[in-house]
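Lest this sound abstract, we think one record worth quoting, the chain in one-letter code, the fold tokenised, each line plainly labelled:

>
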Amino acid sequence: MDQKSIGKARWARVRAASLWQQADDLDRNRSGDWRARATRRRGADRLRAEAARFDGIANRLHPFEDDEAA
């Protein structure tokens, strides 16, 4: 595994974690009427889908990073 791929994988993992956090923040916001909550829920779903995509990219680039961290 070359350093460039490892760096890209780390970046993708950080991006995925950021997107997951943003989605969780949207879910915790309970203000507004049912339309506002539904809009935030759809936004959170899109963020989670994008986070999953970045996780997949990271796993393709460097699938063993979780083992090295332990």
Q: What stands out?
A: The chain has three helices and no strands. Residues 3 and 54 are 18 Å apart (CA to CA).
